[in-house]
Fold these 2 entries.
Entry 1:
Amino acid sequence: MPEGIATTTILPDNQLSNQKKVYIKTYGCQMNVYDSIRMSDALAKVGYSEISDLADADLILINTCHIREKAAEKVYSELGRIRKLKNARKDTDRPLTLGVTGCVAQAEGIEIIKREPAVDLVVGPQTYHRLPEILAKTAPGKPVVETEYAVEDKFDHLPLPEKKRTISRGVTAFLTVQEGCDKFCTFCVVPYTRGSEVSRSARQIITEARNLCDAGVREITLLGQNVNAWHGEGLDGKSWGLGQLLGELSKVNGLVRLRYITSHPRDMDEALIDAHRNLDILMPYLHLPVQAGSDKILKAMNRQHTAQEYIELIDTVKRARPDIALSGDFIVGFPGETEEDFSATLKLIERIKYAQAYSFKYSMRPGTPGAELENQVPEDIKSERLARLQALLNEQQLQFNESFIGKSMDILLEKPGRDPKQLIGRSPWLQSVIVDASVGKIGDIVNVTITEAGPNSLKVVGA
């Protein structure tokens, strides 16, 4: 999953002098951002307030990502730095507790303690609702590891955030509707770290959406490892698909924009495509990863679709919503990839024309089938191919942004800009738009005419 757009606003540390303090560092995807927020909410029930200064924390949680090897190694480097802080506090009246959560926690479990003995607790993604209970069990020299998949639904037990806490987090929010994956792509660790696909009920999701909107949220992005595989219990007791859920969410008072991420081509059904045609609240943006353009590589990846099937699906979506912006994920240098295979990926990109995309060199993840494949591509070839692919994607992204110069659009004002005289808004197509602060206040939807465009943002004259 690519990086998201929502952020958490944390209260100033000097306002929290009489409370226990937690610092949460989040690596990885939007799902981890959402999980960190919900962990903070759970800890608030037992007296913890989230702060932005690591050195002043009573509890530090590192919420981890295991998608790529470098991401995991960054975690251990971070733990080494925190160990020094923990040792310095060892004999004081404020000892420091250190925890690792997320997908690295789930994948490596007790090995984290063996590699970094300073860690006091290791908690997998399915047990966040038990975090206060787990924390109470920890003691110096007695670390706790909780990585078993819970029998109960964690979302039934996680507290909904209080209104005042939600208000501090801004006008956009993530909302997890689905977790896990049953696709077993050969490069991916998600089925092993997040488990099989599980969908929350429509009632749970709608209740949380209403809670967010009551606190001032105006845009919600639905999250899932395969979000369009969502099939939860509907309000009528029957099984619903994501298209029907989006239709019901469109009725939530105060909600003006809906998005969802990340989708799998196999789960893009007719009802969901109809939602893009019929729901004005559903923004014209679709992140639909293909990963490669070669059928040979797609088969080796176990993607269970061909390049042509993907292209035909995109064409169907475009007929339903002609102005839709397309985003994708690409892996270069998958085992066995030849120059011909790579050229097929470039050809597909030229055919689709992406507004935005995320691209990576193949990273071997232990325990996945891809790690056992022969014909691993040399690192220098992967780097050279990635550079060519990213040059094409960057060119397409700039062309897409430049196509809006001189056009008017409604943007949602989200946050202050770097300059105090600026605000940052978000277009329906997920672009950042820099405007003069005089156009409105955060939370407003304002109409602006774009005057400048760069590879990563749009701008309005005077901003």
Entry 2:
Amino acid sequence: MRVLFVCTGNTCRSALAEAIAVREAGARGMHDVQPSSAGTSAWDGAPASDGALLVGIERRLDLNAHRSRQLNREIVDESDLILAMGPHHVERVEALGGAGKTHLVADYAERSDEGRAIVDPFGGGLEDYRSTTDELERIVGLVFDRIASERPGNSGAL
């Protein structure tokens, strides 16, 4: 299963979500889940932001090799589940053909339809990055709970 996380620049939120998801998949033995990320306004090849890198070091998330990718139709087509950080990201993904497999990450994780976005820490201080990462760690854990519960042959119990 290919899970794509989408934000604006693909240097903060979606990069962190991807790194958290890689760690979560490994910890759960869900090696068939392949996390990736992209941005709706990304500059191809940009590294993770300094704040994301620093919080990544604190949380043992390796973002050193991360390079941003501009979201395009090919990336959307090859993804099975697309989890966006904000409503405008969902709109862009759906315009590229992702309708039916795209959700706000918080709504998907919490099984709600509140339309809640993940706060963008870009331009903020280290505490902003920590707060966003705290939320992403919780949300991505819930995403994996849901993926596990919806697998064929699973009774739905965790």
